[in-house]
Write a structure and sequence with these properties.
Blueprint (H helix, E strand, L loop, with lengths): L1 E10 L3 E4 H5 L6 H8 L3 E4 L6 H16 L8 E5 L10 H9 L5 E5 L5 H15 L4 E9 L9 H4 L4 E11 L4 E9 L7 E2 L22 E2 L1 H22 L9 E4 L4 H11 L10 H4 L6 H11 L8 E8 L3 E8 L1
Parallel strand pairs: 4-5, 4-6, 11-12
Antiparallel strand pairs: 1-7, 2-3, 6-7, 8-13, 9-10, 12-13
């Protein structure tokens, strides 16, 4: 048996934060943001809207497309670095909200590569025979950990969710191969220093608290281009394929320059790359599933297409998955 995606869905909050809005908050401009990132606007949670609220919106859509009910799901995997609570997990909170009563639940913390890690875990459980129907979600409320006084990071991030129903099948399609890798030596290139057990909030003075994303942008750029390319080539090789076989590349929507450089390294023309960064910005673990859903809704994916998904994020973590639709 192999894992196939039978339903996908995405959710973005209704509130928009445009480049023009950011011009009023920090020293930046629409032209500066677009030229360096490709982003025009991003969606931000409304007051009282949580990570699992967004996850629920994406999951309901995926369940409907798969023709499944909440009780059909046997495992919930939620990839996020912005859970509603430190305890319990986002997956357990989502389980309660949606009535996913027959499922085990666990969170995955792999930053922007989280959803792809979730797909690989789901496929492994399915191939082992342990579960047959898995809900995999990538969701982030990055507005909750973004410093809107830091113009180098606040222009990048948005909120959103993407979900997939992964089911066991003996059809000649589904997840063909994958590649996962991490390197914790570079964790401080993209991190939140304070708030964990090493530096708990209650032990810090107010002025010392660093509870927002801190990023070394130039170093992250260099690692992202190299590692997303490496992961993609290795996943393709494991599937016995090359860049020429790829119908559509769905990369993590972090930065337009990173997307273009990755496509160039793989020899994939930009007309075969799905890009939605202008409207959503970087949504971390939600980025790839939101893009996949966007490509599906635009009719850019059809049965038996070869889809290459790749992502890179804090940790450092990176991943690629080759999928036959």
């Amino acid at each position: 048996m192999n894992g196939i995606i039978t339903g996908i869905g995405s959710y973005a909050p209704s509130r928009l934060l445009t480049n023009s809005d950011l011009e009023k908050i920090v020293d930046t401009s629409d032209e500066w943001i677009k030229s360096r990132t490709g982003i025009s606007e991003r969606h931000i949670c409304n007051d009282g809207e949580s990570t699992t609220d967004m996850a629920m919106g994406a999951a309901r859509k995926a369940l409907e497309r798969a023709g499944r009910k909440p009780a059909d799901i046997e495992l919930i995997l939620v990839a996020t670095v912005t859970p509603d609570l430190r305890l319990p997990s986002a997956s357990c909170v989502l389980q309660r909200k949606m009535g996913l009563v027959n499922a085990a639940a666990m969170d995955i913390s792999a930053a922007c590569a989280g959803f792809l890690n979730g797909l690989v875990v789901a496929n492994a459980f399915i191939r082992s025979g342990h579960f047959r129907r898995v809900l995999v979600i990538g969701v982030e409320k990055l507005s909750s950990i973004t410093n809107y006084a830091d113009r180098t990071t606040c222009v990048l991030f948005g909120d959103g969710a993407g979900a997939a129903i992964v089911e066991a099948s003996d059809e000649n399609r589904g997840i063909l191969s994958s590649f996962l890798k991490s390197d914790g030596r570079y964790g401080d290139l993209l991190w939140i220093p304070d708030g964990g057990s090493d530096r708990p909030l209650q032990s810090l003075n107010g002025t010392d608290k660093r509870v927002y994303i801190i990023m070394n942008g130039s170093e992250i750029y260099k690692h992202a281009v190299r590692m997303m390319g490496e992961a993609s080539l290795k996943a393709l090789d494991k599937a016995g394929l090359t860049g020429d076989d790829v119908t559509l590349l769905v990369p993590h929507q972090a930065n337009m320059r990173i997307i273009e450089s990755t496509a160039k390294r793989l020899g994939i023309p930009m007309e075969k790359v799905f890009v939605n960064i202008a409207k959503f910005g970087n949504t971390s673990s939600a980025s790839v599933p939101m893009a996949l859903d966007g490509a599906f809704e635009q009719g850019r994916i059809k049965r038996n297409d070869i889809i290459l998904m790749t992502a890179f994020g804090g940790g450092l973590t990176w991943a690629s998955v080759v999928l036959k639709w």
